[in-house]
Predict the 3D structure of the following.
Amino acid sequence: QLQLVESGGGLVQPGGSLRLSCAASGSTLDYFAIGWFRQAPGKEREGVSCISASGSSINYADSVKGRFTISRDNAKKTVYLQMSSLKPEDTAVYYCATVAPRATVQAMCVPRNALDTWGQGTLVTVSS
């Protein structure tokens, strides 16, 4: 059974960068679409970015377009989220999960479409 573990979070100043990793174990990653989600204090979980199983389709939330880049390396069984030009409002716990196939990758990228039980996530804090 596929299990995902997030890492790479930390404290970064506004304008800085971080790269999050979502490492898979227990199964191949090749057939799964993967999403990154986040939950800020006092807010609902939201979709940040999703990538199809093939990597050919990608979706970004409007709030992160142009700043975040999702990628996957199936050989390493890892999905990455490169975050640049970070803002204080990006502060949140970030989670990755497999997502159910939908007609569009945008439709995949909502929390209710996640297939996994949410893990511990990785905390990203953007602050000076």
